[in-house]
Specification:
The protein is of the alpha/beta class. The chain is built from 18 helices and 15 strands.
Length: 564
């Protein structure tokens, strides 16, 4: 329950304090006195957008403070604990706005963010104003009203989560396919390049090896002659070096016999003989293997020509071409991974689609069931508001056609599209509200919906601004009676111009505006019984208050008490 409201430097209000009570609280006053500013102040402490334009001229800061009395079992108690806010049965909200546009919110002296606070405000109060009358004409909002009536919040939240998961998977798959499509030609070219490089069967450093081999083949005669001549000189000729070593050996033996210290010279000679014999053998073998091979020379030249051609496309050396081949393999393997990813996403998307449809169809079934009940109960409330012949219905878009599970119908709100229909008078067809509802009918339909929706949530305070739009006389009295009935379970604050509604209030407050010097002052006061008669008489009589209008005001109050 909203128990206290303090407004400081907001619009034309310098300072205003008001205490509201249980039941139906009536707020009245002349047009322009500042009643709508009070509603705006409550909106601010419920988390609406704040602007420095709201600050009173000449002031540096505006502030709105509200105190709510809540039962300890209220849902908000646990949320306050999560925010670190102490709770002693009262919740105090302070909202400040300064000239630099900054706004701060304190809950029980604890600074909180706007996002944190907005998650709590739906449990504090509900405000219905002229804009909400007009919102009834928007079919896009009717679905939310039906869900609120059916208390489908948990199921709706699951549908939203599944839709988001499905949408993300769908978008990811679309991006992947688009990327693959854009790369398709590039991938074909990469496959061709890899095929060409793999067909070449490249061997590391073979370009250098082949270049050396072709040099040897081209100089085969020279190499053979050099090796053969060296072999002859060392081993085969009459005066070959190895043959002359025997003579050297005899001389060294004489030397060693005389000078024993030189015996090692014989060892050196033996080592030299061994090395020369190995050299001669190697030269003989090399010379016998050297030959000019025209076919091998042609094959090498063809291979080098291929390597040269590939080198122009993929790098100057075999090493660079092998690196390019490995890069292509890796890139194409990654593309194969994308194929696997695409297959996984396809399966995930199908699974998420099925999970979403399962919950969306469950929600749709509950909505159809709730729609029948909502229509019946709205008609019952409308009957009490002087629309006893009115017919109200909820029309689903899929009632007249099939295929509602087409993905084009998927949304975070489910697979349903609906709108409210009304037949205000006998013999008229049910038609969308926007085509048939007058201002007075919209006011009563809104009151009917609020009456029904108030049974679902925990909002202790219901605020009605302009609920009397387009109604008067008997209908206004019925609206007042309905508000009084609603106030038996909720605190109701109603801003009205009609005495037929005002007379049903348990408390009555008057907003007044007066000029003091160079400024305008708005005030609010709780009316005594006598003051209330004067105010109702003013609301009845217009410019001047007569004894007749006072008598009628007394009659209104008396009649309202008889209805209790």
């Amino acid at each position: 329950m909203l128990s206290e409201l303090v407004v400081h430097n907001l619009a034309i209000i310098r300072h205003l304090e008001v205490s509201f009570g249980h039941g139906l609280n009536i707020v009245s006053g002349e047009t322009g006195a500042g009643k709508s500013i009070l509603v705006g102040a409550v909106n601010l402490v419920l988390g609406s957008r704040a602007s420095q334009e709201l600050i009173r001229s000449g002031a540096k800061e505006a502030a709105v403070e509200a105190a709510f009395h809540l039962p300890r079992q209220h849902t908000l108690v646990s949320r306050l604990s999560e925010l670190g806010c102490d709770f002693t049965g009262e919740l105090v909200v302070l909202r400040t706005i300064n000239r630099n546009g900054r706004s701060r919110i304190f809950v029980n002296d604890q600074l909180v963010t706007l996002q944190q606070f907005q998650r709590m405000t739906g449990f504090l109060a509900s405000i219905s104003g002229q804009h909400e009358h007009q919102s009834l004409l928007n079919p896009d909002l009717h679905l939310g009203l039906l869900d609120a009536f059916g208390d489908f919040e948990d199921l709706c939240r699951k549908v939203v989560g599944l839709f988001q998961s499905w949408s993300q998977a769908r978008d990811e798959l679309r991006r992947l396919k688009l990327s693959k499509q854009e790369k398709a030609d590039q991938l074909d070219w990469m496959r061709f390049q890899l095929q060409e490089l793999e067909a070449a069967e490249l061997i590391a450093d073979e370009d250098e090896a082949l270049a050396q081999e072709i040099t040897i083949i081209k100089h085969a005669a020279t190499l053979h002659d050099a090796a053969q001549s060296s072999f002859q000189t060392i081993y085969a000729d009459r005066n070959a070096i190895l043959g002359q070593l025997s003579s050297v050996e005899k001389q060294l033996e004489i030397l060693a016999n005389i000078d024993h210290k030189q015996e090692s010279l014989l060892s050196h000679l033996e080592q030299a003989r061994i090395h020369l014999e190995e050299l001669a053998h190697s030269l003989q073998k090399y010379a016998s293997g050297i030959k000019f091979d025209p076919q091998r020379l042609s094959a090498i030249e063809e291979r080098l020509a291929l390597l040269h051609r590939l080198g122009k496309k993929y790098g100057g050396s075999v090493a660079e071409m092998l690196s390019r081949r490995d890069d292509l393999r890796q890139a194409l393997e990654q593309d194969e991974q994308l194929d696997l990813l695409e297959d996984r996403l396809d399966k995930d998307l199908l699974r998420l689609r099925d999970e979403y449809l399962e919950k969306a169809k469950e929600l749709s079934k509950k909505r159809h069931e709730a729609a029948t009940q909502l229509a019946r109960e709205v008609e019952n409330v409308l009957a009490a508001l002087d629309m006893d012949r009115a017919k109200f219905a909820v029309q689903f878009e899929d009632d007249a056609k099939e295929g509602k599970t087409v993905e084009a119908n998927f949304s975070a709100a489910g697979i349903d599209r609906l709108q409210f229909l009304l037949s205000a008078n006998p013999g008229e067809e049910l038609k969308p509200l926007v085509k048939v509802a007058s201002g007075g009918e919209l006011s009563r339909i809104l009151l009917a919906l609020k009456t029904l929706l108030s049974r679902q949530g925990e909002a202790e305070t219901l605020i009605f601004d302009e609920v009397d739009a387009g109604v008067g006389g008997r209908t206004a009295e019925l609206v007042g009676r309905q508000l009084k009935n609603l106030a038996e379970k909720h605190q109701v604050i109603c801003i009205t111009h009609l005495p037929q509604i005002a007379c049903y209030g348990a408390s009555h407050y008057k907003v007044a505006k007066e000029a003091r010097g160079d400024e305008t002052i708005t005030s609010i006061s709780s009316l005594s019984h006598e003051e209330r008669i004067e105010e109702l008489a003013r609301m009845l009589g217009g410019i001047s208050v007569s004894d007749k209008s006072r008598a009628q005001a007394v009659e209104f109050l008396h009649r309202a008490r008889l209805k209790e």
